[in-house]
Specification:
3-stranded antiparallel beta sheet, about 170 residues, globular
Length: about 170
């Protein structure tokens, strides 16, 4: 279950099940009231960016914020015309978008997919990193990409870093 701070609920993004956040650890042998919720999801990244860049207009684009049919188009339109300074999102903003004013792209936990039980994990990671990196520097100003990973020397990450498609 994924913790959603604003709604104070736990939700499964696969089946839609949700429940209240427990006040104590749900394990019967524990029941510790010092239960903590931690992570590096888009909501946490958005909160951190708001603290670091208080004057920037930051918006989040993920499954939780895309509720209505026109949300995707509206947010991307606002980003295109400069109403949004920093766009935080999931893989949904990685592909096929052309914004000449994007000069910096940050990829957090870039190696997440590498640890999935899939023989194509390396190829998929390479493709995603390459696609996301391609969002930066499409205009007159050169772009920069910052990648955070726990296994930065994995071949898929290193090949993406060097644009080594072969």
């Amino acid at each position: 279950l994924t913790y959603h701070r604003q709604e104070q609920k736990l939700s499964c993004h696969i089946c839609g099940h949700s429940e209240k956040v427990p006040a104590v650890c749900p394990n019967d042998s524990c029941k510790n009231p010092a239960i903590r919720f931690a992570g590096t999801g888009t909501q946490k990244v958005e909160e951190t960016l708001a603290k670091l860049f208080p004057d920037a207009r930051t918006h989040r684009m993920d499954a939780d914020t895309m509720k209505r049919k026109d949300d995707y188009r509206k947010i991307l339109g606002d980003f295109r015309v400069g109403k949004i300074d920093i766009l935080v999102g999931t893989q949904m903003i990685a592909k096929g978008l052309h914004f000449p004013n994007v000069t910096l792209v940050g990829i957090i936990f870039a190696d997440l997919a590498l640890h999935q039980p899939d023989f194509r994990a390396g190829e998929r990671t390479f493709q995603l990193l390459t696609q996301v990196a391609g969002r930066a520097g499409r205009g007159d100003i050169e772009g920069e990409v910052v990648v955070q990973a726990f296994t930065p020397f994995h071949p898929a990450i290193q090949f993406a870093r060097r644009h080594d498609f072969i």
